[in-house]
Structures are given as structure tokens and as C-alpha cells.
Amino acid sequence: MSGATGSMGSPTGTALLLAASPVGKGCLVDAVSVLPVLAAVAPAVLAGTDTANVVELADPLEPQAVLTRLRAAAMTPGPLTVFLTGQLQLDRKQHLPHLALARTTPATVRYTAFPWHWIAEELRLRAPGTTTLFLDLHADAAAWQYLTGRPFGAGRGVSVYGRVAPPPPRRAVAVPTYMKTVATILRSGYRPEAGRLHQQALGRLSSEGAAYGDVVLAWDAVSGAGVNAGFVSPPPPLPVPSQGGSAPRPPAAGGWVVDRPEGPRPQTPPEGGPPDGLVVPVGAERAPGGAGEVSGPAELASPVETAGPAKQLAPADNATPAKPLAPVQQAAPAQQLAPVADAPRRLALVQDGDPHSFITSAVQAGRHGDADALAAEREQAVSRSHGPASEEALHWTEVRADLAMFAGDPARSCRAWLTVARTRLRAGQAPDAPAVEAAVDRAHHQWTSLGESADARELGPVIVELRRRVPGRREGAVRHAERQLERLESAQHVPG
Q1: Which H or E element spans position 90?
Q2: Quick check: 358 and 312 in contact, CB under 8 A?
Q3: Of 47, 53, 79, 129, which is least packed with CB atoms within 10 Å of its CB?
């Protein structure tokens, strides 16, 4: 097809289109809405080869269904491109990221969601440069904190491009704008090189003022260059497909395979453990009444160590937190569910464990005031012991910025990120340092969430001034901030 990459005699490529998100109030993103847009793209353009197979997996119910399709795609000899849209959540035992599926709830992530490290394990034997992932993911509160302090990818041999967005406002469902933009570009019939396609999509989103607060993924497996997409921790061994669940044969060249759940999507997962047909990974506890454990898959060349629990919210080497222009405000009184007198109780709850776990649990329970109060206590303590510009203090300012976002207070979040950025700059960090750019991007993102409010007008000049000093890596970011401020000023002076 005109515009498709590849040469005569090149192997048949494969494109795997996967979109998944939970049903009901746990849904953060309308993942399947991107599939009609991707389906309108010619198979050869999706795969970047002269001939291609396309496999579509829409709202799968079971992790085993995803594993079966992924394993079949990984075994194909030609280039493989995966377009993955959905939401990330952490399981409550090991705190590892999972792709949420239709039946996933916060309490059942370990059994109803697809472990992210299975992707890396299935693709690890493919030659570098033959596998590309395009990702458009939204993370819940715990997963977002996990990702902002760690590299995220699918193995060193897999090129990864895309973004991970923070959770949308409460009771809102996000749109997978990055993946829809990628699909729109590809519908022209021409497929740029993967890195260039990624940059074009980001450029369009930036011109619309979208995605400034996201974690951007860009990893070229051939050159070994990129950001935020390193190799993840060693995963547990993969389960063998359950009996009768062997990988399907690929379709004929140019054909489509569409997997959709039969019948209506269930509103709640089955109680008592894993869904029928799911084999629990080695090392997992046996769920009450659930499936038993199995030995590692026969096809693995060598056993892989089981990953230990990952600490949430661990600061990255160049993570970003800091001291505000004005001190970061406490949460509104209505959100302060725990009064100051309860500080000893909070400290007692976390003195023997990780305070981040307490904060994550409080956010998930809607106790945003408790979470912010503990983070503020930690911020003040490390500021006294290490200094307000130390990484330790900046980490807790960053945590408070995210907590404000989770609580639906973008103005407070914006001010905290501005504090982080200015503190880092005053400490001598370069305007193009990743931690500085990330802080400014997130402040910009929170500012755009304020609409035409008084907070937006107050913060606008500060954002524009800082944006000019720290333009970031998104083309058009400075101009977008300037135009937004012009609109705010015009709206303020309109008669009547």
C-alpha cells in the first residue's frame, strides 16, 4: 500500500491492537474508543510492512486471553507493532503495575488484571528493533506515584513510545488522545519512522494544550537512547496457558482477528479469587477457592527470579519536589478528615512502615486531608534536617503536588509544581534538566485545568515567565502558554 514502509520480499508484519479498561466507576479512560480509529488504518501501515496481519483485542475479560494473544504475536517472525491503550493499577501485595481489564477492581488487581512484566517476558526473545510498542495509558493514584520514580518499559529489546497520564478528575473518564492522534496521522496512508511518528503526535497534542503533565516514553531499542522507558524489575515466571488455551494460529496475510467478550460485560468480578481459566503465577498466594499454583512455563530457557515488593513513591535520581514560592497550602478544611490532634495517631500508624503506603491507602479511601497532612509533616521534617532544597524535601513537595491533583485541587497542585521548578533552578539546576522540565510541564498541565478562574489569571504570568525560561521538549509549549494567557486577559476585560 502507498505510504507503508517495508520492501519487496520483506516478512509479513503483525499489528496487535489492545484496548482495555474496567467497567463501572473504576474506569479512568474510554480505551476502546480508539479501536475504530485504528481499525480505519490499512494493516500494512499499522505494521510498517508490505503485508500484515492485524489482531484486535477489545476489552478482554481474562488475563489469560491477553497472554494467549500476546504470546502468539511474539512468536511471529516478522516485525511486531503493539498499540496498547488502557489504565495501570498496582496490586496490593507486591505493588507491581498491571494493565486493568474489564473485571478489575482495586481489590482484585492481582487476579483480574494483566501483570505488566509479562509483556517484557513474552517479548524478551525477539530481536532488538523488531518490536515496537505505542502506549497510551492512564494510571490510578498509586500507579502514578510508582511510575514517576521509576523507568517504565517492556525490556531493552523493545522500542517504546507513548505517554502515561495521571488519573482524570473524579467522576471523569479520560479520552486516549495520544493514540487517537497516532491513528489519525497513520490514516493518511504514510507511516513515519516510529520515533518521528511519536514526536508528531506529541506536537499535535502540545498545540492543543494537552498532555503537558504526562510521563512521556521514548525508547529506541536499536540505539539504546530514550527517556523513561528502561527495563523493569525481574518478573516472576509466566504461567502456562490454561488447558485448552493454546495460542491461536495467525490469520492469513492481510487478515484481521477480532477478539471481543461474548455477551454483556460483567459489572463485578467473580468473588473468591481468580476468574475461571486463569493460572496464578508462581509465587502468588493461593486465592480462596481459586486456581492452584503451577510450575514455570516449559518454554522459558532459564527460571527468572520473583520480584520482591516494590516500594511505592521511591524518589528517582532526578525526581522533582521543592519549596514553594509561597508555602504549599494545606488541603481545604472540608477535606481535612483528620484534625491536627490526630498527628500522633498518623505517625504511630506509619512509624514501623513506609509512609507512602499510608498515603496511598488514604487517597484510595478518599481521605485526601489525612494524606496531605502526613506528607506535610514529612516535608517539614526533612526540610529541617536536610534543607528545603534537598532532594529529600523536594520529594515530599512533589508528593503533595500529586496529592492536590488527586484531591481535585489543580491550583494548589500548580503552585506546588512551580515551587519545585523554582527551587531547582535557584539551586543551580539547568533549565533543560529532566527534573526541572517535568516540574514545569506538570505546573503547565495543572494551570490549563483551571479554565478562566481567578487562580488561572493569577498563575498565568508566572507560568508564562517560567515557560520562556524552561521551554521543555514539547514543540509549541511556550506559544500555547502565551496564547492561553492572552485569552484569559481578553476574557477579563470583555465588557459586561
Answers
A1: strand 80-90
A2: no
A3: 129
